[in-house]
Write a structure and sequence with these properties.
164 residues; alpha/beta; Rossmann fold; five-stranded mixed beta sheet; 4 helices; 5 strands; 33% helix; globular
Length: 164
């Protein structure tokens, strides 16, 4: 069993769409105890297999809701359906919202699933994040790292994780 799995989703060559991958790499470098980190270039049914066996999952992806770039949307996927319109700029085809709702209908959601949608600005072809995204990246990464540690403490308190 994996106590906490962090999945960064994105496309390295579509500017701000890469933010999920970049945050995942930063979290991987921190080597948080009890946290496994993977990268996924796109959402889809493969995610259902990736998170199988995890006590808790954090998905990180870029979103486009016309809010200020860098805004962090935090969604508890067990609380309510994930708004599909939040992911209208996704370059993944089969998006995160669709994947989560498919998993819900198949009863294959992990016990805990948090989605961190980072508001992007530039999704055109190209490499590198927008200036706005670059400037908030350290703060976003630290916020997700804090929430990861809090989720692990919660799991340990509830007895779901004995050792990590």
């Amino acid at each position: 069993m994996i106590p906490l799995l962090v999945i960064g989703i994105g496309n390295e060559y579509r500017r701000d769409d890469a933010v999920g991958l970049i945050v995942a790499r930063a979290l991987q470098a921190q080597a948080l105890p009890g946290v496994a980190v993977i990268e996924a270039e796109r959402a889809g049914v493969d995610l259902l297999e990736c998170w199988a066996g995890a006590d808790a999952v954090i998905l990180i992806d870029a979103v486009c809701s016309r809010a200020q770039p860098g805004i962090l949307h935090i969604i508890d996927a067990h609380g309510a359906p994930v708004p599909a319109d939040l992911f209208t700029c996704s370059t993944h085809g089969f998006g995160v919202a669709t994947t989560i709702e498919l998993a819900r209908s198949l009863h294959r959601l992990p016990p805990r699933l948090m989605l961190f949608g980072i508001e992007g600005k530039e999704f055109g072809i190209g490499w590198g994040l927008s200036i706005e995204m670059e400037s908030i990246l350290p703060a976003i990464t630290e916020r997700i790292a804090q929430m990861s540690r809090a989720m692990l403490r919660s799991l340990a308190t509830e007895g779901e994780v004995e050792r990590w």
